[in-house]
Amino acid sequence: VGVPVISTAVGDIPSVLHNNEQGFLFPLDFRDEDYANAIVEILNDYDRFSKAALKSSTLFNKSTITNEVIADILQIIEK
Questions:
Q1: Which helix (H) or strand (E) holds 25?
Q2: Are the beta carbons of 54 and 5 closer than 8 angstroms?
Q3: Is the pTM of this model over 0.85?
Q4: What per-residue confidence (pLDDT) applies to 52?
């Protein structure tokens, strides 16, 4: 939806969120100071981060995701 993200680099998040593009990725042991600096950096360049976040959100088509979830559920039920 165009909201920049600050997250830890876990799971599949790094496959979608690229550091210093749609927001920032941090290791699990991030420093509070780094988190605060990332917020300031995003706010100082919000248009760039927001546009990149909105562009990357097109990967998440609600119909496709819903159909995939339904297919997964049906596959589980069939087992």
A1: strand 23-26
A2: no
A3: no
A4: 94
What ranges in 1-79 are assigned the alpha helix state H? 13-16, 32-44, 46-56, 62-78
- Using an 8 Å Cβ cutoff, are 65 and 72 in contact? no
Distance CA 39, CA 1 (A): 18
Answer yes or no: are the C-beta atoms of 49 and 22 closer than 8 Å. yes
Task: Yes or no: say if 2 and 54 are a contact pair by the CB < 8 Å rule.
Answer: yes
Q: How far is CA 59 from the centre of its chain?
A: 11
SS3 29: coil
CA 34 to chain centre: 18
> What is the distance between the alpha carbons of residues 19 and 52, in angstroms, rounded to a whole number?
11
Predicted local distance difference test score (pLDDT) of residue 36: 97
